[in-house]
Design goal:
The structure holds two protein chains of two kinds. By secondary structure, chain A is mostly beta strands. Chain A has no helices and eleven strands. In chain B, strand 6 and strand 7 form a beta hairpin. The relative contact order of chain B is 0.33.
Amino acid sequence: EAQVTQNPRYLITVTGKKLTVTCSQNMNHEYMSWYRQDPGLGLRQIYYSMNVEVTDKGDVPEGYKVSRKEKRNFPLILESPSPNQTSLYFCASSSSRTGDSVDYGYTFGSGTRLTVV
Amino acid sequence: ILNVEQSPQSLHVQEGDSTNFTCSFPSSNFYALHWYRWETAKSPEALFVMTLNGDEKKKGRISATLNTKEGYSYLYIKGSQPEDSATYLCAFAPPGYSSASKIIFGSGTRLSIRP
């Protein structure tokens, strides 16, 4: 089954303890993105990647790192989490550049609900 | 800052009625527009991707139109059913290769269908 797999689904952690949220897709998609969802703010892009070793900042990159060493994986790293990073996180992937003639939009993972205390 | 506005924020519709809602985006800086349906406790799912002014797309009872000159898109649902209850998100993609994967989401329209 074609899918984007995120782990973990839920995570409660303490301020300052480094964590990684994994994201893997089995569709050979070039494009991957991380978003956070906060009440009343909509989905905001954290980082995106256009291919292996090609990443760029989205709208809210502060406090996050990403890497794209393999096409299928795009982990999100919080080096020193803080309470304002408590949020619902989504990873998404796409087979084509947005707006290309064959663009089916993004396939989203199931989400990771992170609480930083 | 590029902004995407959706209205209304929420909508309650009787089963069987038709409804529509709006997504507004910067008309001067357009590349593509996406619509997603997001059901509670699930992930957003792509409905449509539109790129050309005047585009109309349809999937079952749901359709969408695009006006890039005035910067809006409408999503229509004909004969609403309880399974249509969800938050509908639109997302705008500005032009430029470096921003080709960069899409900006609106806050969504939360649709509830009353049986």
